[in-house]
Specification:
The protein is α+β, with helices and mostly antiparallel strands. It has a single domain, classed as Extracellular Endonuclease, subunit A (Extracellular Endonuclease, Chain A). Helix content is 25%, strand content 27%. It has helices at residues 2-13, 25-28, 104-107, 133-137, 157-162, 174-195, 268-279, 300-314; strands at residues 21-22, 35-36, 39-43, 58-65, 68-76, 81-89, 144-147, 169-172, 201-208, 212-214, 227-229, 232-240, 247-257, 260-266. The protein has an eight-stranded antiparallel sheet with strand order 1-4-5-6-9-12-13-14, with helices on both faces. It has a two-stranded antiparallel sheet with strand order 2-3. Strands 7-8 form a two-stranded antiparallel ribbon. It is globular. The model is unreliable at 1-19 and 297-315 (pLDDT under 50).
Length: 315
């Protein structure tokens, strides 16, 4: 556990000099990813996707706000949605909402590293490689912005503000957004608080592109397709058990259908196997935590009690 906590401390004091869109998570903001127990300098980001037909499609972003890295995101510039966001869960404290922002360097590498409100950014290519506010505004009756790294999964206002960027959001219906929050985000929060040492865990949350797109129209910007509407949503956590100090992990996968979300509880290994098939454009397997957290999960008995708890108090 000391090695994991050390990563959190390093993030606060180091790795601030490199721009936000980076060549390598490992070189720029490694501490958002679990480290090797035998070497605190070795970190394991999830698999970075690669498109041989479009080598610049996937961008690694160290999400920066107020000159500090807050979390990390792999972003799909073709679908204009994130593949995943990786962050620490370190506890919950009530935080306020914030204004939506974008990542300037996705459209112009000469712009600054901090996320900004789009009306403050001056570049002719604004929105060429990412979603803008108007892409969702045209569809407010049907879709909302669904956070991958949720605002409520942190205890720091600056981190909460940093979650309000379109590089951390995917189109979700309000019903799906609510279902995901109720059936996944709140449950993982309680499991981490009750079972992880010091309430600390590494979490990765992502989305798998679907067949449908938000139909966007922009003047003078060469956008061939709109913003992709994901078909699947997923999340996984890894931490040290607060009793045995063994690695503890768990995962969820959800699929959209006409009735809402269908949610499955899985092991990390099971989720990795599913994502290997769903993404389809990777070499080898999709790996979440470097193979360190594939096995042990909360017991079925405890998970049943957790479901009972949330169903009772939310109805």
């Amino acid at each position: 556990m000391k090695l994991l906590i050390l990563g959190f401390m390093l993030q606060a004091f180091g790795y601030l000099a490199i721009g936000k869109v980076v060549e390598s998570f490992k070189d720029s903001c490694p501490d958002f990813f679990i480290n090797d127990p035998s070497d605190q300098n070795v970190h394991y980001p999830p698999t970075v996707l690669y498109d041989s037909q479009n080598p610049n499609r996937y961008k690694q972003i160290c999400q920066q706000w107020n000159n500090e890295y807050r979390y990390a995101t792999l972003y799909d510039t073709k679908g204009r949605i994130p593949v995943y966001s990786a962050y620490y869960y370190v506890g919950y404290h009530k935080v306020d909402k914030a204004e939506w922002k974008i990542e300037p360097q996705l459209d112009d590498p000469n712009l600054g590293p901090d996320m900004e409100r789009e009306n403050t950014i001056q570049t002719k290519d604004k929105g060429k490689n990412q979603a803008l506010y108007g892409d969702y505004a045209f569809h407010t009756k049907d879709y909302t912005r669904g956070h991958l790294y949720p605002r409520c999964h942190n205890n720091d206002q600056d981190c909460a503000i940093a979650t309000y960027t379109h590089t951390n959001a995917v189109p979700q219906t309000q019903a799906d957004n609510n279902d995901w929050a109720h059936n996944v985000e709140r449950k993982i929060e309680k499991i981490i608080q009750d079972n992880c040492d010091k309430g600390f865990a590494h979490v990765v949350t992502g989305a798998v592109p679907g067949q449908f797109w938000l139909d966007i129209k922009r003047d003078n910007i060469p956008v061939k397709e709109g913003v992709n509407i994901p078909e699947y949503f997923w999340t996984a956590y890894c931490c040290h058990d607060n009793e045995s100090n063994a690695l503890l992990s768990g995962a969820w996968l959800a699929k959209r259908n006409h009735k809402g979300l269908v949610v499955w509880k899985k092991t990390v290994k099971q989720l990795e196997e599913e994502l290997t098939k769903l993404y389809g454009n990777i070499e080898g397997e999709f790996i979440m935590f470097g193979g360190l957290c594939q096995g042990r999960i909360i017991s079925r008995f405890y998970y049943a009690l957790t479901n009972l708890y949330f169903n009772f108090f939310s109805n």
